[in-house]
Design a protein that fits this description.
With 273 residues, the chain is an all-alpha fold. Helix content is 71%, strand content 0%. It has one domain (1-273).
Length: 273
Amino acid sequence: MKTYIVGTTTIQYILEQFENLNSRLDSMSQDISNIDSKIDILINNFVIRVLSIKKENRGVEEKIILIEDNVGNLLKEDPDYEYHSEGFKKIVSKKIRNWNLIHSDTKTFLVSAEYLYSSLQKIDNTDFSPCIIQFSKAFENELFIRLFEPFINYMKNNSNLSEILFYDLSKKETRIFAQQVISGSINRQLALGQMLYIIKNCGSPRKSSFLMKGYLDFLTNSNSKPSMRDLQEFEKINIDYRRKSAHPEVMIIKKAEEIKKLVPIAIDKLFFN
């Protein structure tokens, strides 16, 4: 058995290394604490801005646009979002059977909604409206991609759309739909409630027009028309969650938990075949 003699100089060197290591660990711990503090301030300020928007004298859709814009700014500023996004993606992907088929933007909205669901829990008794709006946006996007974009692209084959849709452009009920068809699918104008209204009423004789009849034919021929029961569930997302999130009252975490369950189910229902 070998015996090693450790001199005073060696022991002193080892102790110095330990002290340096402890100092670096303390510094790292302080850096992490500072980052966490900055993130907390970032989220607190974000919530304050959202609550302020909800109290403004604006229409629901305008408030939702402003809240969505603030969500986008938060995602750019918060390092936690990008760092944990893969984890949130794994969580939400397990809830949707057709995950591999849904649009990339829909996936992004779902991941960011899960991020907001976690981040907002850092604040006591906070408002979960941004989280709810983001989940709703995911469904809104997939509804447009699945049930409206193909029809709009088909209609764009007509060279004289403005003349064909003259009547629809003059009617309040169909004006935005007609404008969307003319401008194409890139410049999104239709909000969730408007799309649900079109789907629900395109078969109504009282709402009949060239555009509405054409859209009904598209849904029928592609076997894409949601059932009345599914439409009721879709409208619940819009009325009970999305629109209420723009009202001044606080949306509690229970509402966020509910829409977390509703939206993945609703998205899967858009895949009919």
